Amino acid sequence: MRIVTDFNEDWLFEGRDRVRLPHNAVELPFSYFDEKAYQRPFTYDKAITLDPAWEGREVSLRFDGAMANAKVRLNGVEIASHADGYTPFVARLTQYLRPGVNHVNVLIDGTENPGIPPFGGVIDYLTYAGIYREAWLEVSAPIFIAQVKIETPDVLTKPQVSARVWLDNPQGLPLSGTLTAQLKDTAGAVVASTTVKADADLTLTLDAPGATLWSIESPALYTLDLTLSTPQGEDTHATRFGFREVSFTAKGFHLNGKPLKLRGLNRHQSFPYIGYALGKAAQDRDAEILKHELRVNMVRTSHYPQSTHFLNRCDELGLLVFEEIPGWQHIGDAAWQAASVENVRHMITRDWNHPSIVIWGVRINESQDNHDFYTATNAMAKSLDTTRPTGGVRYITGSELLEDVYTMNDFILGNEEQGGNRPRTPLRPQQEVTGRLDVVPYMITEYGGHMYPTKSHDQEQRQAEHVIRHLDVLNAVYGDPQIAGAIGWCAFDYNTHKDFGAGDRICHHGVMDMFREPKFAAYAYASQSLPDEGVILQPVTFWARGERNIGGVLPLLILTNCDEVELRYGSHPPKRVGPDRERFPHLLYPPVILDKRHFTKDELGLWGMSWEHAEITGFINGKPVKHLTFASDPVATTLQVQPDATHIGPHDAVRVMVRALDQAGHKLPFFPEPVSITVTGAGRRVGPGFVPLRAGSTGFWVQATGKGEITITVTSDRLGVSVTQIEAR
Does the annotation mark 403 as catalytic? Predict the structure, then answer.
């Protein structure tokens, strides 16, 4: 049987520190740092003792990701190298192991090497450095299952599993034996099986009548268990997948034959302080935030293949994925382009069994046309996977269409502020963008972002405009059947190079901040979900008379999926208003906009110098379903410390949010006072221990260091001490 062992513990970093993988070579400050701090080589060393039980078996190390240009040595001999920082690689140890203790050395280089995509130009994100994903020791029979590709043709008529299986036989031994396949349903019951003669390259077909389709509402997952039996031993391999059919047409996107408007956000896989180096729990949590808090149905892995933990969770949640190769605007020389074509191979062969992935991005994000290069990337994708379309993200109009879907970053909204000569326009018509007379499969892959960066603590009116811009694009997308959907820029703020962002090394482009704390614009997306998923009632206001220019809170934008919203101001008669379908005719759930239209002159006069409390209630089918109150005199009342979970694995990391709340339970957006954070027990704090509250909150991650109790103590001079317990088990 194949034995896969955690190989993450007790690495010697730079000859001085004992660390566990995933590991970030340099922990950065939150802002205003020198990004060159990690742009150099680093070493990782680990001892491995030869086990006599490995005699006659294959032994290898698998690294899920290292940034970048990794070279692996065993006992001083280089046995593997891998330039790409985003895909896995294997170092075969078998023929190099010697009795007793062996020495593994990994050299990685955080330098932005112009010969390796995405480097060569300036990129608007950081790549960090380190062995930032997990490593595994694998011991198997000398002939073993190397790769499996599963396709599910004709899911709407006659569901089948077609599995292509590759065997690896590095010692060149005679091949004989059998391969047995068992198809298991979501409950683990065997629904089909077959046994065939072992071959170096073979295809299995299993009928699956009545198979449950994978969908965004019900993401049913099946498993194909393979057992290879040869005279040299037995090997097993399990692959999870889903039965589903996807298509992009000139009439939009279809999942399992049904139209679905795509509503998504882009994601960088980075986190404050620790960069890329957070494992399964944090990756899972990001997918859960996108699905359950932002309530989007698609995410784009901008601008590189992301953690398989994240993709696995997308499979489980029913969150569609657009995955693309590494790159940002720059196209390098012929060798660079050849490496990028290989990146297509690495990405697709790693991820082709994920049902959540519905399109491959085979063009360097926002690059110029390059016929020969992109002919090659598309050909590579098609040779590997005919079940998914390709897309190529561009921002130039009239671009050559070599892919199946014309994927476009449309930043026309806001262009009028940059000296453009057209009125405010959410999106351009497809034919204007493509320069074609015909209609083609078409999707918007970025909008917003740098055209209107918004910080969590920005003035209320800017926050409201930020919201409106996202709603304007969503409204245009829902109103245009030629657009399959749109993926906004972006979900989370992220650290970047000095050339971008606000000068603080942060791009404040997200609808959430770097700690995944929502800005008001987050609710522009969440409010487009069914009330069954949870009632959304979010007024875009801090409820302060003097926060806006001139004063007051009108017009008051309320993001909601309710039928009506009622506002009570002090003791005055309430105002009940429905969604503004005139302003946003195509949105599933337009916002409620309270403005002068809803008040008489006398009523407006009541909003005078004496500021009153407010009550806002959402109604569905005439019944109140959610109620909010806002104090007229907010004071700092509560220090809230909220971990995402109270039980974690012995090596997991959990996010903890800290907020200053007023007496009504609302976050105080301009409460800047610092808090001190200490973590004791079986865990460590990621990041500094004395931090300010930004827009009334801050966050940090607690990394478990083993099993046991973790105590988190957060202290505010004004709001006191909060002690929280988490158990790692």
Answer: no
DSSP H or E run through 617 = strand 614-620
Nearest to residue 351, comparing CAs of 299, 309, 298? 309
The three-class DSSP label of residue 287 is helix
Contact 35, 127 (CB under 8 A): no
- Token couple for 526: 């969440």
CA distance 330 to 552: 47
For residues 322 and 298, is the Cβ–Cβ distance under 8 A?
A: yes
How far apart are alpha carbons 561 and 290 in whole angstroms?
A: 18
Taking only the tens place, the pLDDT of each residue in 372-425 is 999 999 999 999 999 999 999 999 999 999 999 999 999 998 776 666 677 888
Single-letter residue type at 107: L
Annotated active-site residue in 366, 403, 517, 612: 366
- The catalytic residue among 446, 460, 517, 612 is 446
Spatial distance between the Cα atoms of 197 and 147, rounded to a whole number of angstroms: 17
Per-residue pLDDT tens over the stretch 157-182: 989 999 999 999 998 899 999 999 99
Residues contacting residue 158 through CB under 8 Å, at least 6 positions apart: 207, 209
293 is catalytic: no
- Residues 293 and 322: beta-carbon distance below 8 Å: no
Tokens of 464: 């409201």
Report pLDDT for 418.
Answer: 62
Structural tokens at position 78: 């280089």
Asked if 668 contacts 683 with a C-beta cutoff of 8 angstroms, the reply is: no
Alpha-carbon separation of residue 691 from 29, 53, 274, 674, 675 (angstroms):
11, 51, 16, 5, 6
CA-to-CA separations, 546 to 186, 460, 635, in angstroms, rounded: 56, 10, 16
| pLDDT tens-digit map of 495-538 | 999 999 889 999 999 999 999 999 999 999 999 999 999 999 99
Collect all residues with Cβ–Cβ distance below 8 Å to 612 and sequence separation of at least 6.
569, 570, 571, 572, 632
Beta bridge partners of 721: 715
Ramachandran angles phi, psi of 558, nearest 5°: -120, 115
Banded pLDDT at 602 (limits 50, 70, 90):
confident
Q: How confident is the model at residue 648 (pLDDT cuts 50, 70, 90)?
A: very high
One DSSP character per residue, 125-185 reads: S----B--S-EEEEEE-SSEEEEEEEE-TTTTTS-EEEEEEEEE-TT-PPP--EEEEEEE-
Q: What is the mean pLDDT of residues 12-31?
A: 96
Query: Look-up: residue for tokens 């790409």?
Result: 84
Measured CA to CA, the distance from residue 329 to residue 550 in angstroms comes to: 43
- In sequence order, the 6+-apart residues with CB closer than 8 A to the CB of 503 are none
Are the CB atoms for 687 and 273 separated by under 8 Å?
Answer: yes
Confidence of residue 369 (pLDDT cuts 50, 70, 90): very high
CA distances from 355 to 248, 281, 311 (A): 15, 21, 9
Residue whose C-alpha is closest to residue 653's, from 33, 23, 10, 14: 23
